[in-house]
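Dissemination and training. As part of the outreach component of the grant, students in the summer workshop were shown how a complex can be specified as a set of sequence lines and then modelled as a single object. The example used during the hands-on session is reproduced here so that future cohorts can follow it. Participants entered these lines:
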Amino acid sequence: MAEKSPPKAAFAASGIELKTFYTESDIPKAHRARMNLAPGDAPYQRGFHPAGYRSKPWRIFQLSGFGKPEDENERIKFLLKNGETGFIMEHDRNTADHCYNVDHPDVVARREDVGLTGAVMQSVRDTAICMDGLPIDTSFGHAGGAVVQHAPFALAAYWTVAKQRGFDLAKIAGTGQSDFNLTYLGCVTKEQIPTQAGLRFNADIIEFCDQYLPRWVPVSIAGYNAADTGLTPDQELGVLFANAVEYLDEIKRRGNIDVRSAAKACGGVSFRASIQIIEEACKMRAARLMWSDLLRQRYDITDPKIANLRIHCVTAGSKMTYQQPLNNIVRGTLMALGAVFGGVQSLGVSGYDEALSIPSEHAHQMSVRIQQIIQEETGIAHVTDPLGGSYYIETLTAQLAEKAWQFFEEIQGQGGYLAALDSGWLHSKASDNQYKEFMDTESGEQKIIGVNCFRDDESPFHVDGFMGTDDAFDVATSRLQDVLRTRHETAAASALKQLEADCKGEVNIMPAMMQAMDAEVTLGEIGNVFRQVYGNWNTPIQT
Amino acid sequence: MSQAQKRILMAKTGLDGHWRGPTIVARALRDAGFEVIMIGMANTDDIVSAAVDEDVDLVGLNIGGHIDVAKRAIAQVQATRPELPIFAGGTIPPHAAKDLEALGVEVYPPGSQLSDIVDAAERLTGRK
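and obtained this result:
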């Protein structure tokens, strides 16, 4: 009989070589003492609470939004009716990411794009329409403002509407993201405030929330946006914590609030849940372990309420295929499973039409159903950290953390996270990985079902892109004119002047932002102040 | 080689800054010996003037938004330099891909092979 050939080398997405099986002796010695602790015990790799999902199911939290504010409102209500347990308000990228009003020439030139990726909200009136009837007192809300320069507007508008409706800001829970990985790495806008100004904005938001909105997650660092731009899982971890220390060190330097409350605020993060699901589950475990170690070692923080990382996850949009899109229901299910095995607190599943367009109503509903089936039918939620103790899982968790710390140190060697963004160092890392990933698919080394193998151009399951509504630009234009015509002009001018003064000075900009919302100052006017005061980030990449 | 290096203009029609698609394509085209001029997020007028000023042999459009925005750019490029070929990639749903193909634009949606894109560039620029 011929001898069997030795098995082909196999690697996790992080580049860690995988054995064909694992035994106890593979687990790094330092990790062995930790792996026997219960969930809820530091360093928390086993999870946030001993009773896990029995004490609190993960939040079903889907990205949503398009068209006019009322279209977005209707879709959010549809998702809530279908069982979503938090809600996300997406803003139109053209206007929001750039802080432009719809009459900006670059927006007018693309009027059909307006409303395609989120609702247009240029004033607090628009935000009020989008929030109409939403359970902002009982649900965790995402106000939008994923891009750093847009966050002050999105948050201030949301909070102003909440106040107008009589809610106590101290009691509402939610987030707005304001993510550097999106803004300066993954989705580089045409104009953006420089990273130092962005850091100041986020510190202002953290301090403002500390004072007035203790239940709000002021900024939410999104590893997702680094990973879907090309960083590997270990790099995603490393970059997220490199970002976190930049915020916390800045808060310490400013000395206005206790770094412990800032650490609690920054401990609500998001990761990508990608398709190598065992590694992804290990990544979530490693993340909690790393956060706990980081806070203890660098800031002397051990309070479990702070050191216990809270994780939101979104399944990897870039893993969803254009070809045979119904296969993406399976991919979404698997990626969601990886996240749940990793013990995340909140989850969004990409639509099966992700590679074609924004989600149709049906695709959106399917994303919710995937989560509900895992939550209610599989029994996975009964036991916390169901994979814990496996030789493989514990080894890979420890290896990922170790490799992630190496990347964290590499970033420090570049002068820190902000410097690594400004120089384009992180972009070139992401770009190299993207290219390698693409070439592996191209060569067939990495098979993608329906894309580079098992192709089927005659699929009977036709899915076309969902294009939203076609009147978003026109309606936004007339609403902008209405606001400018009917608001109290003296109040608006004075609020803008105050904002400009505060941006130039050193006081927190958020009180002036709130005042600007009361005076119905519009998004584009605020953007003009930012551009005038801070100038434009010198983008290190050519797109 | 006697033949001058063929030049390709790449532009994004939308204001969405996601960059991984177009940069991978640009890298593959450069590796294949093309000169690639990237102008990022560009309005129709910018695309047309770059196509003329840079004397390119092919225009590549990254379309992340509505097809009507791309159509305006295509119409103006075709009106200015009728012989200039155009290809497109990005999040282009099937119905929109059909519309673009009817205008003579070759469409490479997500999942396209880089080798097919490079082959198209060779063919459309007359290098092959």
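Chain A has 23 helices and ten strands. Students were then asked to discuss how this feature might be tested experimentally.
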